[in-house]
Amino acid sequence: MNYRHAFHAGNFADLVKHAALLWLLSQMPRAGEPVQVIDTHGGSGLYDLRGPEARRSGEAEAGVMRLMAQAEPAGEMTPLVQAVAEANSGGETWLYPGSPWLIARALRPGDRYDVFEMQPDEHARLSTLMAGRTGVATHGADGFAGAVDRLAPGARHLVLIDPPFERADDYGRSCDLAAGVLDQDPAATLLIWLPLKDLHTLDVFVRDLEDACDPAPILIAEARMRPLEDPMKMNGCALGLINPPDGAQAVLQAICSAVVAETPGGKAQVWSAG
Fold first, then answer.
1. How far apart are alpha carbons 25 and 59 in whole angstroms?
2. Are 178 and 192 spatial neighbours (Cβ–Cβ below 8 Å)?
3. How far apart are CA 36 and CA 59, in angstroms?
4. How far is the C-alpha of 159 from the C-alpha of 242, rounded, in Å?
5. How far apart are CA 267 and CA 12, in angstroms?
6. What single DSSP character describes residue 2?
7. Which of 100, 119, 179, 257 has its Cα between 20 and 30 A from that of 140?
8. Would you call the peptide bond into 195 cis, given omega within 30 degrees of 0 as the criterion?
9. Helix-helix angle 99-106:120-130, to 10 degrees
């Protein structure tokens, strides 16, 4: 695969995904129970917004740069604002933290984080970034194939499924992995990110996800930047949240609404599937 997240780091879809991820991480801990987070497609973990890839796409300008310039960001976006500021040591925003950086930062003693990245150069950068962090293991392998085998007994599980969707079967493999995780731990919480292109693709994915995860509850959160009319464009993004914590629907609605707020014709909605 040729996908490189550096082109897209800090765009609107990252804001939706990472704001939701930070909230979920805050909801997972319980006294006496370790948390294990599994990340199927970690990337390199930290991105230079001054680099040629980010400059070429310009996507961060309408995403994290706009967010960090807001005088009063929405409350649900505040943890992400704080994390980005921390990654930049409180200075100018030129680094964007990916999911590995955000997750590793949230670990408590006894928690565990397994992160997969199958592209060798990306995995090498990720391994360097995560070096020396207690409880973190990086895997230069296919997260779809390896995630279930890494589930640790006796832990509360949060699984982030975030493939590049370069391949048509990434939708089906995401559903298959969700089913495999729930077969091992029916109480696991899973967060699946996907691009929004057209309604047909979304409808098929949701039906397949319902079949794969039944009877677990599912929330679908949509941040539409434009109408879902051109399947050749990324017209928004969505999250599928399986076994959502209490209060998730309101939080996801607030996050999606905040991200689309300054987009003419933007639409945010969160609804229950299944």
1. 26
2. yes
3. 31
4. 10
5. 13
6. -
7. 179
8. no
9. 30
